[in-house]
């Protein structure tokens, strides 16, 4: 996995210690960042990249897996500070990232307001305001399902809907590595569906996991949980079986 660096970023959010794992994919010409954390995370990212012996100025591209707040929160800040970085996203995601369409998470949260009691409703409204405050950012290049980007030994775009309709994962055939985004998460050493209560289409999410079985994957990197250690194929099969039963 020598062309793939995990950037484990530890921080406190809502009073809890959390870790996210953006990824840096590299070759002689390219330093490609995958996802970029919450708003105001640029200093965290700069430090994490520097610890790998790389200047953030050398980042050439930033691929976004989907438009959740913890994946695009710092996108506009990064583009402002480093305008040379090419922002890449799946075609369905572009209008949400650029602000032409309302975030699907906002729509989802609004749909629950009528069912909530006062305290929970206040929390949901606060969450909606936070989501609405995330600054839109321009998408310089869109990609489609099964497209193979020519950098770093090839980066295959794998449309993995469910968590969100436009969610993508990235397959690196040269190292048989899957960057999963939120298609799956790693919890207590076990792969699982990311935030089932917030997954927009659970059937599609499970189908996406099933589709990953078509790839020869030796390593899987989850945005939440980091690098999975174990038999990837068996773990994916177990996850599909769990949601079938």
From TrEMBL:
<feature type="domain" description="Metallo-beta-lactamase">
    <location>
        <begin position="19"/>
        <end position="224"/>
    </location>
</feature>
<comment type="function">
    <text>Counteracts the endogenous Pycsar antiviral defense system. Phosphodiesterase that enables metal-dependent hydrolysis of host cyclic nucleotide Pycsar defense signals such as cCMP and cUMP.</text>
</comment>
<keyword id="KW-0378">Hydrolase</keyword>
<dbReference type="InterPro" id="IPR036866">
    <property type="entry name" value="RibonucZ/Hydroxyglut_hydro"/>
</dbReference>
<dbReference type="InterPro" id="IPR050855">
    <property type="entry name" value="NDM-1-like"/>
</dbReference>
<protein>
    <submittedName>
        <fullName>MBL fold hydrolase</fullName>
    </submittedName>
</protein>
<dbReference type="GO" id="GO:0016787">
    <property type="term" value="F:hydrolase activity"/>
</dbReference>
<dbReference type="Pfam" id="PF00753">
    <property type="entry name" value="Lactamase_B"/>
</dbReference>
<dbReference type="InterPro" id="IPR001279">
    <property type="entry name" value="Metallo-B-lactamas"/>
</dbReference>
